[in-house]
Fold this protein.
Amino acid sequence: MDMKVAKKKLGLKERYRTMTRDLGWIPSCQTQETLYPYATYEGIRIHDWDKWEDPFRLTMDAYWKYQAEKERKYYAIIDAHAQNNGHLNITDARYLTALKIFLQAISPGEYAAHKGFARVGREFPGVGAQVACQMQAIDEIRHAQTQVHAMSNYNRYYDGFHAFADARDRIWYTSVPRSFFDDAMSAGPFEFMIAIGFSFEYVLTNLLFVPFMSGAAYNGDMATVTFGFSAQSDEARHMTLGLEVIKFMLEQDPANLPIVQQWIDKWFWRGFRVLGLVSAMMDYMLPKRVMSWREAWQVYGVENGGALFRDLARYGIRPPEGWDDAEKAIDHMSHQLMLGLYQWSFGTAFHSWIPPEADMDWLSQKYPDTFDTYYRPRWEYLRQCAAEGRQFKNFGLAKLCQVCQLPVVFTEPDDPTQRCHRSLEHDGETYHFCSDGCQHIFEHETEKFIQAWLPMPALAREFDLNVPAWMDWVGMIDGQDNGDYEGSRDQQHFNAWRGLATTNQ
């Protein structure tokens, strides 16, 4: 007599193997070296690709199911935000400056990461690595799309959101993250994984997404909170994967250690320089703040980063070369960069402002050893200039760092009264740097970084210092998208519409 026999259900580990490793094959018509030419040229030695372990054991069918559920919830909230005039629920329109920088600088970076993971997924011989990169490539383009969709509602009411793609490619402050991703995407596949999987995901993500999304909630922006929560589960997976990639390389061959350490040194410093924009957003651009940049660094940099490098010490990895200089810069970098953004506000596709007295008191409390001594006097001088009708503007071209592309506005690690400026000669040309960290990167990869495209020298060369022509090229409308927040159209519109929504006028 026939009996019904229940189909054997695969365990999690078996299912993962069936849906990933068993999908691979060894081609007979071409050699491995021909198919994967970039797997060896960086010098990384991999002896067994089957040792690559995805810590989440996620398969494609489960991936699509989870992502689809998140998409349904996300777009339901975005629709509700738009239909209920969510743009009037924010604290005030100064908050939009943080959103504009995010849209111009970070969202295009997500798209660049998508392209990068799609490429390295093709260049790795191992099936486990290919599947992991494929999922992360899809994650990254989804993040770019949801961020653009979440902020598109603000573009209907406020200035500065309309040309974010041009701003990303052509404005001086967005060239900082752009050069970060261009550098990563022109690197080999293993270095790309350190750049994005470790530096961007592990170092940057915690300091960007967690405090910034909390700040969005504090400031009434539920659209941004929603895309942050939607992305956060992916980010946790990306961070874990980035760490596993480092361990995988170190466990495969001891000869990989010096190469990995050098990449960690480089990409920690490159990521830290990108965080300069994040520090200004946290300390100055959120009308209602969750924590200071210093407090966020203490939690996510010192404590989490310290634990990470204690874990990696068993492989011989030490903390990055620029770690001590980074710690010395924490109490200064947001103030120095915001002062720079204010004096060049005619060249930014967002508004800036002199902090009101209450904000300066908050900064004094959060930075008791530095703000009142070094930065409050400068802001008070700028306030006096504005009161006398002569707003301080710097029409000079700032020297840009050849590596990170930030203006040379930071100070020496051990002396906040001295500007940190390094330079060197190469083939008759002088190159400038904002720090020892950036100069060291240039010295190691000179042929790569002498080709860097810097927007301000391009302004001088291609537009003959014609600022209005440059603004037209970057899609910026002078007097609307840039300049001081006080008296701006964003301020006037928000106050008028908020008044209509909350009074009987």
Observations:
- The chain has a mean pLDDT of 90.
- Strands lie at 411-412, 415-419, 422-426, 429-433.
